[in-house]
Amino acid sequence: MLKDRFGREISYLRFSVTERCNFRCAYCSSYKDDAIAKEPPLEDIEFILKGVRTLGFKKVRITGGEPLLRSDIVEIVRIASNVGFEEIVLTTNAYRLKDLAKDLKEAKLTRLNISLDSLRRDVFSQITTIDKLDDVISGIEESIKVGLIPIKINTVLLKGINEEDIVPIANLTKNENIIVRFIELMPVKGNPFFERHFMAFKKAIEILEKEYTLKKIEDSNHEVANYYQIEGFKGKVGFIASISQHFCSSCNRLRLTSTYKIYPCLFSTINIDIKDAVKNRDFELLRSKFESAVFVKPAGHGEIKIGSKEFIENMRELGG
Ligand code: SAM
């Protein structure tokens, strides 16, 4: 297992397997034409997954762009399972999930994270610029039906846009083992959304506490969220405070972009290119690239404020 300079064991890889996306979420990256968006071929993904598993990584998250747009997505999950990852998770907008949930489960996907910022059709369309809320809901229902549980729902907190959705989305945890996580908006290069719509997680807690009593659940290792249970509800709600209360000291992850670059920290432009290692199927070079990435992983990203110079370069390439 790789260990960084600060004693953190690095065992979790987030891998953006495509830059393509069928949503155009207002707070995400500026969008490239999908025709020129990058994605590694399946053979490269197989080499990478085998390699990083050998280096001691236990958990892989498949993200993007929208990973379910890849026609070989089930095969990618199967490869991750065959090479022995203990946890294989996937982040999706759920638009294509209804048709794919069963095959993903059979390929041994462990769990899903589904992005859902509003339960109101007009607001959902305003944020994503696509009128597909019904498909997302069907995807969630199908995933529960095939046993891809517990499902995690990620909701980005957007001041002036989705405050009214906080209680209804938390209500999804009432009867199902669903975990809703409210996520603080992060700054993305060239996108003014952060300045206008950032909402601290404490505001969301305030809104929920007007309706419900929240009981704190003790943190487990490497959890990025603070979790609570609403009295009498089956699931739980969490808050990911990447900005106002970051969790760098327990960060155990590296990110691999759809363009073959390892990013040791989401908010740093430091990156290590592994293209040569992958194209030449050179495992020793791959190992040394990952070791370097772990070595340069910063202690943390410090404080990020409105107007900050620290921002995410390309959310879709990085995978969130
Ligand atoms: N297409 C997939 C999806 O929608 O979940 C995976 C990729 S998306 C980039 C991964 C996650 O990043 C989503 O939950 C999305 O809401 C989140 N995200 C994108 N831009 C963000 C931002 N500026 N701040 C916080 N989260 C963001």
Spell out the blueprint of helices and strands.
Layout: E1 2-3, E2 9-10, E3 12-16, H1 42-54, E4 59-63, H2 73-82, E5 87-92, H3 97-106, E6 111-115, H4 121-128, H5 133-146, E7 151-157, H6 166-170, E8 178-184, H7 193-197, H8 201-211, E9 214-217, E10 226-230, E11 236-240, E12 253-256, E13 261-263, E14 272-273, H9 275-279, H10 283-295, H11 315-318
Parallel strand pairs: 3-4, 3-12, 4-5, 5-6, 6-7, 7-8, 8-11
Antiparallel strand pairs: 1-2, 9-10, 10-11, 12-13, 13-14
Helix pairs in contact: 1-2, 3-5
The structure holds S-adenosylmethionine.
Structural class call reads: alpha/beta
Net shape: globular
Integer-rounded radius of gyration: 19 Å
Give the CATH architecture of the domain at 2-151 and 248-318.
Alpha-Beta Barrel
CATH class of the domain at 2-151 and 248-318: Alpha Beta
The unreliable regions are none
CATH topology of the domain at 2-151 and 248-318: TIM Barrel
**What's the total count of β strands?**
14
**Span from first to last CA?**
24 Å
Task: Provide the β-strand percentage band.
Answer: 15-25%
Taking the sheet with the most strands, its summary is: 12 strands, mixed
Instruction: Walk across the major sheet and give the strand order.
Output: 9-10-11-8-7-6-5-4-3-12-13-14
Could you report the average pLDDT, rounded to the nearest whole number?
93
Helix % is 25-40%
Tell me the CATH superfamily of the domain at 2-151 and 248-318.
Aldolase class I
Number of helices: 11
Note the run of SSEs as H and E: EEEHEHEHEHHEHEHHEEEEEEHHH
Ligand types: S-adenosylmethionine
Domain Radical SAM core: 5-223
Organism: Caldisericum exile
Catalytic activity: GTP + AH2 + S-adenosyl-L-methionine = (8S)-3',8-cyclo-7,8-dihydroguanosine 5'-triphosphate + 5'-deoxyadenosine + L-methionine + A + H(+)
EC number: 4.1.99.22
